[in-house]
Design a protein that fits this description.
The complex is a heterodimer. In chain A, helix 1 runs parallel beside helix 4 and helix 2 runs parallel beside helix 5. Chain A is α/β, with parallel strands linked by helices. Chain A is rod-shaped, with a radius of gyration of 35 Å. Chain B has a domain of 136 residues: Diaminopimelate Epimerase, Chain A, domain 1 (Roll), CATH 3.10.310.
């Protein structure tokens, strides 16, 4: 890692360090080449190629706020930064979710990208996710420091939009500058096409060794329609409903069984003293008769 | 504990000979002089064993027999005290099916003590193919619940089946009707018993009676000697039922 990179990061860290942090926030650094795609854990509610850098699912931001963020994010050509406001809990862990989205949205020529992921639940969470390719440990640490510094901007008092805005407007230019500086030495990660072709022939669960680049198209193959559907379903609710339905059917079955047993139980007439008539031992002549011919 | 019969019925009965209503029990009908000895004299031959389906002429096909047997078994399963017999015969002209049924039920020797016990709750359906009549006869154990009127109503309700679908189908229909009526009658009988004794039915009442109790009940009347014990009479005029050796 070059010295000017480190000093730049330290400068930003010092700049953001005074801000109080927040417990429900986290900085995540992803490397597309070693972090596998989410696979089954896909998302269906996010467009594959967003036209906007701001994806506000619960529509919490006003159009003015959204356009303000949008215009700020649009300037970052070297490292696109997305702002995702997700309603409800995430179907998968935050890093897998962000990994899936950034993989879809980042073009192959982009080395760095970032996402400010706000999860709108009763206990809101904000994640700063920075992704890159072929990150060495030093760069990885620098990016993590950058993310943590951005996290510290959350004061928890000015509101969620303000927090998101602060983080996004801080991280986006910083990462953009970082990406531009990173490219200057002229060592962009280059891929041998033969190597990639070989890797795409590997089975999905083949172990990856060292810093082998992960086949990029594997993620799209792993995300089937079922995966997309399953991510939208509330499995917990389905599980509860299934249990309730089974319990109801079981109880109804038991009730019907008891009813059937009760209805079909053998009946005994009360025994009484026989009133013997005409000296007959078994029957006193109680009888009835009809003629069964049509008249 | 054996309840007196008047808990469940008024105590009126009918004479099998002249069918007149009698206010109280008697060994001889005051109107026509009918008694068991006269009845035996009318049918002076050994009765066949009382089976579930009695078809001495073998006129009922196997399928119909199976259906009939199934229907009877269903009733006997629902009311384990009750046993049912179906008999199809050609009786000579002038012989009343009711009297023949009465004779058959009383005269036929039970195969065992258990059979004798069950005979009190026996239900006999007799079809006389000659006069095209069908008659139903019940034992002492059932006659206070299943009176003549109920039996007649059930026969009338199944009359169309007897006419249009044959006597076997008519009998099946009748047995079904009786089974449904018995369920209602059972409920009423239990209610009457509870009202009278103001308590839950003891097991001896709800379940099948003990042998001793039943024997006692059978022997309560000094005139209750089984007809089969009476002096054997000569077997002239035996109808085909006996002639077939059944």
């Amino acid at each position: 890692m070059k010295d000017h990179h480190s000093s730049f990061i330290i400068l930003i860290v010092l700049l953001f360090a005074y801000s109080p942090g927040k417990a429900e926030s986290k900085a995540i650094v992803l490397d597309f080449e070693i972090t596998p795609p989410a696979g089954k854990l896909s998302v269906a509610d996010i467009p594959k190629k967003p036209r906007s850098f701001v994806v506000d699912e619960p529509a919490q931001f006003s159009s003015g706020q959204k356009s303000k963020l949008e215009s700020a994010m649009a300037k970052m050509s070297a490292a696109p930064t997305y702002i995702v406001n997700k309603k409800g809990r995430l179907p998968v862990s935050a890093n897998l979710y962000a990994n899936e989205l950034l993989r879809r949205w980042s073009s192959s020529g982009t080395n760095f990208s970032a996402m400010v992921l706000s999860v709108d639940t009763p206990l809101p969470e904000i994640f700063v996710v920075i992704s890159g390719r072929n990150l060495d440990p030093g760069t990885r640490n620098d990016l993590l420091t950058l993310g943590n510094a951005a996290i510290k901007l959350i004061d928890g008092q000015s509101g969620q939009f303000k927090d998101i805005q602060k983080i996004a407007t801080a991280i986006a230019p910083a990462l953009n500058t970082f990406a531009q500086l990173y490219q200057k030495p002229g060592i962009p990660p280059s891929f041998d096409t033969n190597e990639i072709n070989q890797l795409t022939d590997l089975p999905a669960n083949a172990p990856l060794t060292g810093r082998q680049p992960f086949p990029r198209d594997r993620s799209s193959k792993a995300s089937s329609q079922w995966d997309l559907l399953s991510s939208t379903l509330d499995w917990r609710l389905i599980h509860i409903l299934f249990i309730i339905t089974c319990a109801t059917v079981f109880l109804a079955g038991i009730a019907l069984l008891f009813r059937r047993i009760r209805r079909h139980r053998p009946l005994y007439f009360p025994v009484h003293k026989p009133r013997h008539r005409f000296s007959a031992p078994y029957s006193g002549g109680s009888n009835a008769q009809i003629k069964y011919v049509s008249e | 504990m054996l309840a007196p019969e008047n808990v469940f019925s008024s105590g009126k009965c009918h004479c099998p000979g002249c069918h007149s209503t009698l206010e109280k029990t008697a060994n001889t009908c005051p109107h026509c002089g009918f008694n068991a000895h006269l009845c035996i004299a009318r049918f002076p031959f050994d009765p066949p064993p009382l089976k579930q389906i009695m078809d001495p002429d073998e006129v009922i096909d196997a399928h119909q027999k199976k259906r009939l047997s199934k229907t009877i078994a269903r009733l006997e399963k629902a009311f384990p005290q009750i046993t049912v017999s179906f008999c199809s015969v050609l009786l000579p002209e002038g012989v009343d099916g009711r009297q023949f049924g009465y004779w058959l039920l009383n005269r036929c020797s039970p195969a065992s003590g258990l059979d004798a016990k069950r005979r009190l709750h026996h239900l006999l359906l007799l079809v006389d193919r000659n006069s095209k009549t069908v008659s139903a006869t019940v034992g002492y154990g059932l006659d206070c619940f299943l009176d003549d009127i109920t039996l007649h109503q059930a026969l009338q309700s199944s009359r169309d089946h007897f006419i249009h679908e044959g006597y076997v189908e008519g009998s099946i229909k009748w047995i079904h009707l009786i089974r449904k009526k018995l369920a209602v009658l059972h409920e009423k009988a239990v209610t009457d018993w509870k009202r009278r004794f103001n308590r839950r039915l003891p097991p001896s009442v709800t379940a099948e009676p003990e042998n001793n109790e039943e024997k006692k009940a059978v022997n309560l009347n000094p005139y209750s000697t089984p007809l089969s014990q009476l002096p054997h009479l000569n077997q002239r005029n035996a109808p085909q039922l006996a002639a077939k050796g059944r």
